[in-house]
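input
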Amino acid sequence: MRKVRDLASVYRSKKKKAKKTESAEENNNNESCSDTLGDTEESTVFDSEGSPTSSSSSSSSSSGLTESQSFWKKRRLSFRSSKKSNSKDLPLLIQPINPTQKTGELGSLESDSCWVERELISRDGDSKIQSEVFFASIDQRSEIAAGESACTAIVAVMAEWIQSNRAAMPTKSELDGLIIKGSSEWHKLCSNEAYIARYPDKHFDLETVLEANLRPVSVMPNKSFVGFFGSERFESLKGTMSFDEIWDEISRDVEEGGEPNVYIVSWNDHFFLLKMDCDACYVIDSLGERLFEGCGQAYVVKFSEKSRMYNLVDKTEDLVCSGRECCREYFKRFLAGLQLKELEMEEQRSHAVPSALLHQKLQIEFHFCRGEGDG
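output
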């Protein structure tokens, strides 16, 4: 099994080779280089629509409503490589709000702790958010991490760190280290024949990762939730818990308890973290493409009193909300907004969208984390 230091050595070696070829490439075609994170020339674009790409997806679709509602549901990352940009798939990054900000701050190694105020446009173009964002130097697909499908293991490692450092957030180097450690743990799982027999595609579900005891982290089912975006809009989802109902519950829990709460969030074949405290919400994600197209860096979005959400209508900006409430709207407008609209259109055309498809596209799970020593 590769050690973390071995991965770092490979990264440094390949980075030196990349530097030797950069000048030659600039002389030949005068093209700008954007592979500082060790990416290949062909950019990898995340399929934000969550379309299944392997045979295992057919079995999940045929399992029916009961299996789809299972608390533990296998999640998979789906990627497609393409040089063609698909701007409708992912949020877009606009210019920095602060005019004094250096253009190299995105991914810059100059500071180990740098929050940058950014504007993001939703995939459907109907919403804009202004909020603070913090970037790592790498994400799970970077060469040094080599964890393309490691999000489940990475969130376990991150959750343990957050639980042990409740009053803090990781610095850039710490976030890099957590991604590398989580990817390393995933590689260990991949070398286990018993796990590979169960998951030949190496996309492990959350239950498997927690059972492997990668870190002293567990979840509390009685404080965890499974629900759907737009459940009130589809006949087959009537009676299920809506995202807004989930958000009201977890927000109330933070206000009553006073202590930060950490959730492993499962949505659209991917796992990430949500940290909630009385003053702010933090979305912590090891996959850069989830934030905007072409992003190769893990990130943290902070929703605090500085955050603003706008509705973009007829070239005007109407304030929707501010503060921590922007995190709720971020989930609804930026994560699920486009898919929800497409499914509603399909419902109007065919009068019935298959429940399996609704579960695949709209189901979201919040797993309440409990670290070692928690009551």
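quick obs: Residues 34-371 form one domain.
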